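Example record

The entry below shows one chain as it appears in the dataset: sequence first, then structure tokens.
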Amino acid sequence: MYIDTYSNLKQAKPIFYRKDGTLTAYALHCGYVMKHDTDPIHTIQMYHEHGTYHVTDHGYQNGKDKMYTWRSWLTYDTYNKARQKYFEFIRTIN
């Protein structure tokens, strides 16, 4: 039995977005970054790098003097744990 793997690959469509509009684990593995700007001086990001999911909370400490600072940088082994922390950061800031 012969299976044409090339035609099967052409038919496969990668899924980058979940039904709620957020990025999938596959999209993060491909280099996409989930980003939420809470205000002009505050940003929350989630991305995948070197087998680890990173969730960062950073921005400018004081809007006038433009002093850039990291508020938090957490790493997780699983997509679901990182995603939970990402949305927890968004809820606490908003």
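Notes for this example: The CA atoms of residues 16 and 27 lie 5 Å apart. Confidence is low (pLDDT under 50) at residues 1-9.
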